[in-house]
Specification:
The structure is a single chain. Helices cover about 25% and strands about 40% of the residues. The protein is of the alpha+beta class. Strands 6-2-3-4-17-16-15-10 form an eight-stranded antiparallel β-sheet. Strand 3 (about 40-50) and strand 4 (about 50-60) form a beta hairpin.
Length: about 270
């Protein structure tokens, strides 16, 4: 493998992909980033911690195709501190990767790319498109209410509740409740699925606020978010989420009762 690409583009992709690198794994390959280059000039970077995977595609000049897996922390540190914009990455027959930029030169031992686990193939039975600005706002306004406890795993994610032209995102930790609703331009049927807060948080960091859309495809087990040059695959949290509508109405009634009792107390005191 021998490629030449932009430092800025490469650095951005490495930072984004590193979010799904496993930090505590018995498999060293999961602590790395899979890099492959094809002769059509597409360079692919993938990370996979077996719960979530992130794929980024960037363009560059590919003299020779190939693939390897490089330790994410080492690669990130090197790319971040490269002096010039143009980066040369070359892999030899012994899987030693040389990274050059200007007068700087680094060598890293690569890992066998055959050992890197493939991202789950998601053949969706449901698909919806959500504006990037909208999804970013919905995540920001709900994710803080997700639970951090393992006692109820279902509450460690956000519920996507889609009914016709309405998409509703719900999160709760059992004490707080956050609901964000957006009306889509077309009927998207009905579907409910719970996405882990961790995956949504990383998607939110990568998303740019523009007028493009995020394509969300899902099965009963996995969901994939496709936007720009990224593809984020995550396992869904299985189980029955709480009925947010009932909970919201219950709390609203409780609030009204509290206000009414407060009024009665004040009225009695005045009498």
């Amino acid at each position: 493998m021998k490629i030449i690409c932009s430092k800025t583009t490469l650095n951005e992709a490495v930072i984004s992909v590193s979010k799904a690198v496993s930090s505590h794994s018995s498999l060293p390959v999961l602590e790395g980033i899979y890099i492959s280059a094809s002769t059509d000039g597409v360079i692919t970077l993938i990370s996979n911690d077996m719960e979530m995977g992130i794929e980024a595609k960037i363009s560059g000049e590919v003299e020779h195709g190939g693939s390897t897996v490089l330790n994410a922390k080492i690669l990130g540190s090197i790319v971040k501190n490269l002096p010039l914009e143009e980066v040369l990455i070359e892999l030899d027959e012994k899987n030693i990767c040389t990274i050059k930029s200007g007068n700087s030169k680094f060598e890293i031992s690569g890992m066998n790319s055959i050992d890197f686990p493939d991202l789950p193939v998601v053949n969706p039975d449901y698909s919806v498109k959500i504006p990037k600005k909208t999804l970013k706002e919905m995540i920001s306004k709900t994710i803080f209410c997700t639970s951090l406890s393992d006692n109820r795993p279902i509450l460690k994610g956000c519920l996507f509740d889609i009914e016709g032209g309405t998409v509703r995102m719900v999160s709760t930790d059992g004490f707080r409740l956050a609901v964000r609703t957006y009306h889509l331009e077309e009927d998207n049927g009905e579907r409910k699925f719970v996405v882990p807060a961790k995956a949504l948080g990383e998607i939110n960091k990568i998303l740019r606020e523009d007028d493009e859309f995020v394509e969300v495809n899902c099965t009963s087990k996995n969901a994939v978010f496709i936007f720009e040059n990224y593809r984020v695959v995550t396992r869904l949290i299985e189980g029955d989420y709480i009925n947010s509508k009932v909970l919201f109405m219950t709390r609203a009634k409780l609030s009204l009762n509290v206000l009414f009792m407060s009024f009665l107390i004040q009225f009695t005191v005045h009498l």
